[in-house]
Amino acid sequence: MMGDRSQWRDTTSGAPRTAATAAEFTPKQAKLRAYMDHSQGCPDCDYGNRRCEVAQGIWREWRELPQ
Fold it and tell me: Which backbone phi and psi does 41 adopt, to 5 degrees?
């Protein structure tokens, strides 16, 4: 019997979703991730509007990395 449209059907690729490890990122991607992690948890950062000294340093390091 074929399922009716009300039944849930998995349409993903079948590959399990896992958290990426740091080794899977390029140095530029890892630095951006560090910046995002910092700015989301820092009470002195206002995402997109204001950055603390630590965030500014991470951002500067990110900009200096080659593509």
Answer: -105, -5
Q: What residues contact residue 40 under an 8 Å CB cut-off, 6+ apart?
A: 47
Within 10 angstroms of residue 35's Cβ, the number of other Cβ atoms is 20
Q: pTM here?
A: 0.60
Q: Which two tokens stand for residue 29?
A: 């991607």
Give alpha helix (H) positions in 1-67.
27-41, 53-64
pLDDT (tens, 9 = 90+) of the chain, 67 residues, equals: 555 556 666 566 655 555 555 568 899 999 999 999 998 889 988 766 788 999 999 999 999 998 8
